[in-house]
Design goal:
The protein is of the alpha/beta class. The chain is 43% helix and 15% strand. A six-stranded parallel sheet has the order 1-12-11-10-9-8, sandwiched between helices.
């Protein structure tokens, strides 16, 4: 890390700008409607590849953030400075469970499913797992560098259903009907691991800097968690409520203020469960899920906030028509005239 980087990333004006953005989000979560609309387009150094060179990457990333720090002073768009080391991408947890995670020619990560039957999943020895130890070392090294203007994003810890489907594929979905107790057992094992990892980060990263995956797009006020609900589109409302929802609620309840679920498909069958889940404070939608914004906005609780990524079928104009800017964070880099 360059000698000047710590001074730049500790500058009072950067911290004040970051805290002002967080304060606007806190007001939104309290039910206020700040004007103009909240727009989030953070500045992030992200890697899935640093591996054993993580320390060199950390210092390089902080230097890079320092070089762009002036951009985070934008008074109109919230541009928090973020760092996010996410080895193996969405398959980080699968790797901890012993699945074979590999890189495709196109750069994406994929996983070979386990050959063991549903109901036999073993909890990994996290204390001695080299990848988890590396992640702990990375987090502690970030804290030691003392760069208070920078937000720290967690790896993809995902959710119990995402991980179960990654590990078993359709077999775990079939087993919900044929071997429900085996599914419950394995989901509990996964839940225990996910919660242990979140709890470690909560203990070791300053709350003012702790964020979940992709903080430049999904930044929340301090004290909020996040999980990925992608695979909930594969199951019925009844199966979700019976098998999965208690674990999602448990994970979000680790955080003082609850947290967010990420959605990217067709998930509206779960609205009644999510409306009743007090720990669920925000819903992030993109792609297919964004097209259902009006349904979510009208059917969920008035205290549940929406992070919306504009897409084909859900334009900025339509987002503002549905929400009137209330309970809304727009995930895009927009000219002020579009949303003010």
């Amino acid at each position: 890390m360059n000698p000047s980087t710590r001074a730049i990333l500790s500058a009072p004006d950067l911290i004040a700008a970051r805290d002002a953005g967080l304060a606007r989000l806190e007001a939104l979560y309290r039910g206020e409607a700040p004007s103009p609309v909240n727009v989030l387009a953070g500045i992030c150094c992200y890697s899935e590849d640093a591996g054993q060179n993580w320390e060199a990457w950390l210092d390089h990333a902080l230097d890079e953030l320092a070089s762009q720090a002036h951009s985070s002073l934008d008074p109109h768009v919230f541009r928090p400075l973020c760092i996010n080391f996410n080895p193996r991408g969405v398959h980080f947890i699968d790797h901890l469970f012993g699945a074979d995670v590999f890189r495709m020619d196109d750069g994406s990560w994929q996983v070979h499913m386990l050959s063991t039957p549903v109901g036999s999943l073993q909890r990994p020895d996290l204390d001695n797992h080299p990848t988890w130890r590396m992640m702990q070392q990375f987090a502690l090294a970030f804290v030691e560098r003392d760069v208070p203007a920078v937000l720290f994003g967690l790896p993809t810890i995902a959710s119990v259903l995402n991980i179960a489907v990654n590990l078993y594929g359709q077999e775990v979905l079939l087993a919900m009907k044929t071997e429900p107790e085996a599914v419950r057992r394995d989901l509990q094992v996964i839940s225990d691991v996910l919660c242990a990892i979140h709890a470690w980060y909560i203990e070791h990263i300053p709350s003012r800097q702790l964020q979940c995956i992709l903080p430049h797009e999904r930044c929340q006020p301090p004290g909020y968690g996040q999980l990925c609900g992608c695979t909930t589109q594969l199951i019925s409302a009844r199966s979700y409520a019976e098998f999965v929802a208690p674990h999602d609620d448990r994970l979000l309840s680790l955080y003082p203020n609850g947290g967010m679920i990420h959605l990217c498909g067709g998930h509206t069958q779960h609205i009644p469960t999510w409306r009743d889940m007090k720990s669920l404070r925000s819903v992030q939608v993109n792609d297919r899920a964004a097209r259902d914004l009006e349904t979510y906005f009208n059917a969920l609780r008035p205290d549940q906030v929406f992070y919306v990524m504009p897409c084909e079928g859900m334009t900025i104009e339509r987002i503002l028509e549905i929400t009137a800017g209330r309970r809304l964070v727009i995930q895009a880099d927009l000219p002020t005239a579009v949303y003010s």
